[in-house]
């Protein structure tokens, strides 16, 4: 069955979580988990550290941003014209 995903991989790709810093809701394969099975409080962070930092700092400044529509990645944020 070349090219087919296992059930576990398909489930993992369909699960989403929110980044603890920037708040983006992404698939878990696009996030890094902070904490192990013994932790009751698991935090998720974007694998794309640069994009996450840009979204996070823009949010702190009050500038609304939306991620670029790039399949398979969070993309770089862009400012919304206002």
Walkthrough of the structure:
This protein is of the alpha+beta class. It contains 2 helices and 6 strands, in the order αββββαββ. The strands form 3 sheets. Strands 1-2 form a two-stranded antiparallel sheet. A two-stranded antiparallel ribbon has the order 3-4. The protein starts with 6 loop residues before the first helix and ends with a strand.
Write out key terms for the chains shown.
2 helices, 6 strands, two-stranded antiparallel sheet, 26% helix, single chain, 82 residues
Helix and strand topology:
Elements: H1 7-14, E1 16-18, E2 25-27, E3 31-34, E4 43-46, H2 49-61, E5 65-67, E6 77-79
Antiparallel strand pairs: 1-2, 3-4, 5-6
Order of helices and strands: HEEEEHEE
Helical content (DSSP H or I, runs of 4+): 25-40%
Q: Which regions have little confidence, pLDDT < 50, spanning 5+ residues?
A: none
Give the strand order, joined by hyphens, for the main sheet: 1-2
Q: Please indicate the count of domains.
A: 1
* Percent range for β-strand residues: 15-25%
Helix/sheet category: alpha+beta
């Amino acid at each position: 069955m070349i090219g087919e995903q296992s059930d576990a991989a398909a489930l993992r790709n369909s699960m989403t979580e929110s980044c603890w810093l920037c708040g983006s809701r992404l698939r878990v394969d696009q996030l890094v988990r902070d904490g192990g099975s013994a932790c009751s409080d698991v935090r998720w962070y974007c694998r794309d550290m640069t994009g996450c930092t840009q979204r996070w700092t823009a949010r702190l400044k009050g500038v609304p941003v939306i991620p670029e529509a790039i399949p398979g990645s969070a993309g770089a944020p862009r400012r919304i014209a206002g």
